[in-house]
Each structure stands twice: as C-alpha cells, then as structure tokens.
Amino acid sequence: MTDTPLSDVMDAHVQANTAETYAAFVEMFRNSVIGIIGVGLLEPDGRAGDGFSASQTTHGDGQPRILTFADPEVASQAPGSQCNVGVPGAVLLRMAAEDPSCEGILVNSATELISIIISRASASAIAQGPV
After folding, report:
1. Helix crossing, 19-30 with 120-127: angle to 10°?
2. Cα–Cα distance measured from residue 37 to residue 47, given in angstroms and rounded to the nearest whole number
3. How many CB atoms lie within 10 A of CB 32?
4. Who is most buried in 18, 22, 98, 131, counting CB within 10 A?
C-alpha cells in the first residue's frame, strides 16, 4: 500500500473515467481522513471550536465548494500547502449535503495536478447511506 491511496484512486479514475472508478473514489473518500484548510480555532483536545469551518473555493466554474486535499499527511508537506487539519470524509459529505450555498466538494490530489468534484447531489446521496 502507498502513502497516497486516495490520490492513487483519483489518478485511476482520471485515467479510466468510468462509473466504477468514480464510485471507488467516492467510497474511499467517504472512509478516509481528508485534509482541509480549517478556519477558526480548535479546542485544546483538537475538536472544532465555535465558528470553526472548512475553507471553500470557487476554482474552475465559480461555484462554491469545500476545498479538500486527498492524503493530508502527504498534501500538508507540499511547499506552500495550507492543508492544516484532517476531517473524516463522511463528515465533509454531510457538510456539503446540508449547506445550500455549497455546490459540493473539490478534492485535490496529493501526487498529481488533478482534482475531482463531488457534487452536492452526489454528497447528499452518499451521506444518507450508513456511515
């Protein structure tokens, strides 16, 4: 197993671009710790404090999405990285599904200059499944 399993699955999806590879990516996202740019204060025990939030981006098409990083242990080491906290993917899917001003999640690979979007509709469908 590599240090970048989610990034590897992302690369496989970009290469094949099938429903099966997308489903594998989303399933791994859901079950992984995902990096974000956390805004606000954390409690001393590492939990999110009042007003803590995940940074969003409008990169690409101008639609607001939660900005995330696959494989945060590796992504946070990249020069200039702002990835500063890890959050369970299932939590991020619920956040995207429940925020009407958010169009989904933008996931950046830790190993390649690629990103994949999880739409709010997809996040809603996935978030409703067992966690």
Report:
1. 60
2. 15
3. 20
4. 22
